[in-house]
Write a structure and sequence with these properties.
Elements: E1 16-21, H1 24-33, E2 37-41, E3 45-50, E4 53-59, E5 77-81, H2 86-95, E6 100-108, E7 113-120, E8 126-132
Parallel strand pairs: 1-4, 5-8
Antiparallel strand pairs: 2-3, 3-4, 6-7, 7-8
């Protein structure tokens, strides 16, 4: 890690990020079924919360002042951490009729080795569910 100096900000983590979605309610339902808390904020905007982080949801026709240069549904690819053993995550995904794209597989996370399983949300964003130290995950198959 590079040493901090007075002319550099000290970055400490990720608070939130934004997904542009076709259907805010469908996206809220998808993530709520997986354990997220849906919250309304501002002028009726929606976010899904996971622990101390959140994903703000912008509809395609949003009127938010500051957005990405080319906001597009399905352009997201991100990892959500879980404390639930990966075999249980897989079982819960299958119980909800959610297709598994890949996994379980070993990946390198920010602070060590993850066991991950991948799915797609209603906008085709690639969502990785991962757990650190999940030695009981079965081999990919």
């Amino acid at each position: 890690m590079a040493p901090q100096s007075d002319d550099q900000p000290t970055l400490t983590g990720i608070d939130h990020f934004v997904l542009t979605v076709e259907d805010v309610e469908a996206t809220c339902e998808f993530y709520a079924a997986l354990g997220a808390e849906v919250k309304t904020f501002g002028d009726g905007r929606k976010a899904v919360h996971f622990g101390a982080q959140k994903i703000n949801l912008h509809p395609v026709d949003n009127d938010v002042d500051h957005v990405a240069a080319s906001p597009t549904p399905g352009a997201g690819d991100f990892c959500l951490l879980t404390e639930t053993p990966v075999p249980t995550v897989i079982e819960r995904l299958r119980d909800r009729g959610i297709d598994i794209v890949a996994g379980p597989v070993e990946r390198t996370g920010a602070v060590g080795t993850l066991t991950s399983v991948y799915v797609r949300d209603p906008d085709d964003n690639l969502v990785e569910f991962a757990r650190y130290g999940d030695d009981d995950a079965p081999a990919e198959g």
